[in-house]
């Protein structure tokens, strides 16, 4: 996702109301407002929350048209003092509304640029296509990748991609379901592949690779050691693989299941017959029309497999035949 070229400081409402105080940008000088800017941007940081008086709450109006709220967390943010306000006046504490998102392995606080974005209107995410927006509503979470450009990183050398995690959050307020959208960016950089030592289960060798690659690159790396992306034959093997993988990361892991050759006809890359499967409810669904590769942990801590675009950079499990 491209970073916004300008920031704007818009007034937010404090509850109870205080006289005319505008929320600034943590002491930074505000950029001038450009009136023809299509989407207004508000950034909120720890300084804005710290400036609240006793009993005051920072109100984020998600019913406002054309506004993106950028939350900075270079310092801890007290989400209990931020209230999300929705159309019709419904209101809920931000820590309550986003409890599930903050508990996810893909929590916004993992974002590489130390910010995440909320909006009440998905059209404000102008970088998403209509098909991606539909997929986001179906999936509840959508991962996209934008571009590849050399970027200096202390821990790596080579190209990086921006992996953007979009989340559609639905909460129930007074019996009414209300939705809003969240996005944050993770920077995935090429580096030296970090894999586990060889582990053995059921007479097969496994390695768990914690560097993120596309499905095809992960497959090629496994094959360089005469291995294949993992085949999961039964629930016992899945339990073992799931448990071992999560010792390294609770984020997504590629396995060898795919329907790249024929949509809807999933096969194991190892050539093994497809007997046991453990698709999560509603999966595979080919959301957005481009999900051809299988992975674990989309719904962590719940088990269940998911299909994803093969171009995403994920961790992966290799197995001997």
What's this model, at a glance?
The chain has six helices and 18 strands. The protein has 321 residues and is an alpha+beta fold.
Largest sheet: 8 strands, mixed
How many domain modules?
Answer: 2
Give the strand tally.
18
Whole-angstrom Rg: 22 Å
Can you give a write-up of this model?
Strands 11, 12, 13, 14, 15, 16, 17 and 18 form an 8-stranded mixed beta sheet that branches. Strands 2-4-7-10-9-8 form a 6-stranded mixed beta sheet. A 4-stranded mixed beta sheet has the order 1-3-5-6. It is elongated and about 65 Å long. It is α+β, with helices and mostly antiparallel strands and 321 residues long. 15% of the residues lie in helices and 33% in strands. The N terminus is likely disordered. The chain starts with 12 loop residues before the first strand and ends with a strand. It has 6 helices and 18 strands. The protein has 2 domains: 177 residues, no CATH class; 121 residues, Mannose-Binding Protein A, Chain A. The longest helix is centred in the C-terminal third of the chain and has 14 residues.
């Amino acid at each position: 996702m491209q970073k916004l070229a300008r920031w704007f400081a818009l007034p937010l409402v404090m509850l109870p109301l205080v006289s005319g105080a505008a929320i600034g940008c943590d002491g930074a000088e505000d950029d001038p407002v450009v009136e023809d800017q299509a989407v207004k941007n508000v950034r909120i940081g720890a300084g804005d929350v710290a400036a609240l008086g006793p009993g005051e709450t920072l109100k984020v109006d998600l019913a406002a048209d054309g506004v993106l709220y950028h939350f900075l967390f270079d310092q801890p943010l007290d989400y209990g003092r931020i209230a999300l306000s929705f159309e019709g006046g419904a209101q809920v504490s931000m820590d309550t509304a986003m409890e599930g998102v903050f508990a996810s392995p893909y929590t916004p606080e993992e974002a590489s640029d130390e910010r995440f974005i909320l909006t009440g209107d998905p059209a404000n995410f102008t970088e998403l296509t209509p098909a991606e927006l539909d997929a986001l509503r179906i999936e509840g979470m959508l991962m996209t990748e934008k571009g590849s450009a050399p970027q200096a990183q202390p821990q790596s050398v080579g190209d990086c991609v921006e992996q953007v995690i979009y989340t559609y959050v639905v909460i129930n307020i007074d019996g009414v379901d209300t939705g809003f959208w969240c996005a944050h960016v993770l920077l995935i950089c090429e580096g030296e592949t970090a894999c586990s030592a060889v582990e053995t289960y059921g007479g097969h060798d496994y390695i768990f690779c914690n560097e993120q690659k596309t499905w095809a690159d992960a497959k090629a790396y496994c094959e360089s050691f005469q291995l294949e992306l993992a085949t999961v034959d039964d629930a016992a093997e899945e339990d073992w693989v799931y448990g071992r993988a999560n010792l390294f990361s609770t984020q997504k892991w590629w396995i060898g299941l795919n329907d790249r050759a024929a949509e809807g006809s999933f096969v194991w890359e190892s050539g093994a017959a497809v007997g046991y499967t453990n698709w999560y409810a509603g999966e595979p669904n080919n959301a957005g029309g481009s999900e051809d590769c299988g992975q674990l942990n989309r719904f962590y801590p719940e088990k269940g497999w998911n299909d994803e675009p093969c171009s995403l950079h994920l961790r992966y499990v290799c197995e001997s035949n």
